[in-house]
What we know:
By secondary structure, chain A is α+β, with helices and mostly antiparallel strands. Chain A contains six helices and three strands. Helices cover 50% and strands 15% of the residues of chain A.
Amino acid sequence: MVKPTARYAYDGLDRVMHEKARLSLLTALITHPKGLSFTELKQHCGLTDGNLSRHMKVLQDAGLVAAVKGYDDNRPLTTVTITPAGQQQFLEYLSVLEQVLRDAAPLPASLTATFPDAEPDLV
Amino acid sequence: MVKPTARYAYDGLDRVMHEKARLSLLTALITHPKGLSFTELKQHCGLTDGNLSRHMKVLQDAGLVAAVKGYDDNRPLTTVTITPAGQQQFLEYLSVLEQVLRDAAPLPASLTATFPDAEPDLV
Lengths: 123, 123
């Protein structure tokens, strides 16, 4: 028996990237191609040390981000960057999010009942 | 000390709605205002009986969806609908998803390096 198409299954919503904190980290990193420090990531994403470290491990294990040890003004500084594979996979993930928004779009149209400016009053 | 703004924290990505299967169910339901049967939901969302029942309970407990018992051709048929509160909260959730896409948008612009049709060859 052929399985019916699961129109709204969104298999591309990979759980590694879809988790809220990791989605936050990846968005921060894809918009900062030169990378961000741990301190910047915590601030931008509203994460504690523990949360950042836990989610960084998941993202690193999946090959989506990399932590590069370097120096800033002679002090050791680790910079986190999104990897090329991470960039590609995150863009694919984002295209599925876009699909979700397109699929859910019919509703705003139905809201024109509340804001019927498309239907001028002919009386 | 004032907490710095967490630009990419996306607090509106409520975990009840953000979970992949529940996001799938809510998208299917918001696009079917008259509701869907359990069978239709399983097909549209690619869920097993067990998964559907588990995620339905979470969504019902949160007041986002309702199951109405009725009849179809004299056979009992339960129809699941999104509640008005569910519709409102899901739209708010979707607006946060839109924000994620807007935030991540700078990258596609950089992809014009690969598809430089905005930069005609002047040679």
